[in-house]
Amino acid sequence: MTLLKWFAPRRALKKRRAASAAPFAARAAAILAFSLTPPALADSASRRAPAPAAPAAESRYNEEAVKTFLKEIGDQASKKGVSRDLVNRVFKDFRPDPKVIAADERQAEFVLPLGRYIATRVSERQIARGREEMTRHARLLQETERRYGVDRHILLAIWGMETNFGTHQGDYDVAHALGTLAMGERRRAFAYEQLLALLAILQENPSLIPLRGSWAGAIGHVQFIPTSYARYAIDADGDGKRDLAHSLADAFGSAANYLASFGWRADRSWGFEAKLPKDFSYALAEERLYRPLSEWGALGVRDMKGEPLQGETPASLILPAGHLGPAFLTTKNFEALLRYNRAYAYALSVGHLADRLRGGKPFAASWEKADKELLPPEKLRLLQTYLSEQGFDTGGADGMAGRKTRAAIRAYQKKRDLPQDGYPSLSLLRAIRAEKRDKP
Ligand code: CA
Asked: Across residues 345-370, what is the average pLDDT?
């Protein structure tokens, strides 16, 4: 589960930024240095475990600190019904892992433009590979489809996006990786919460020890973090174990169960690319601003074949890279994908890869102009600062295009008679900077 922060300008992200674990980054990382969020971070009802106060940095990982940490985690786990024996077994020979510390510190704020990201993730090679896997696992996919109402193309796309079809599940001992993070600072609360959930899973099924996964705690074929594993994983193959690392049936079933739990419905797609009329009012493009397809049709919106839109399916229009890039009409299934990972880049890649596996065409509109408009987080912070100086409330310069920032941008665009797409573009930063120079 990947997350390009400002492709996922969602309120919840702000709250959860600390928990942004970027397991995907650990794999695909070289290309995409990340801001990616962990899988199924979505667990909205989850509660943070109270993390004990952090020790000073220099002593953070020494032997004394390890002892203290193990005692604390043992105490907390036993309150949740996990035995000391199990904790001792899981943490036998535990040492904080420098590779995990380094991976956590490497979290640069760097992101690929959306068009290039999707081109990388939904490549001809991935499509060909996905089709092979579709043939290989046809019966299992059919069975999962039948039971959970999530179609095979979506499941394959998630599997492909998360672990390149099971081949990159991560080679860290997840408990030790989370233990290391729990001893650190940045992800302390997140790691404690995940570790406690993980210990409960291992107590339920000790044969999974040592459970392997990403440095940030994502496990198995579809990279569930432990809290999601605890809540949404299922034993689909009926062997008595919920095993997302070794059982593809459990992994598919769990991913499908996860989506179904967040409202996925078999009778609608995630969405589709849309064509807007020339005079379209971009102010209507906002996530979760739903209208029936027929209403979009009446506003002049078409599908890429030029057919008028019909039917009552609620859809919201999004411009993930601003008005210079492609437009999409997205259904509530798209929201379910965003629960898996709160990034447009992720959800669009999954949806598109699924469509391509089904035989669909590449996106029609070009990303080229829009990709050039991408603002890195530090420049977005600058834009937010300039907007605030002019009296537009962005809710703070946090480098993320949340709802308030988008509204502030729209208000500014309206005042300057610009297309009101609410998108933080490079051109917009240039324009507002030029104004600043003109009026010192
Ligand atoms: Ca099983």
From this structure: 97
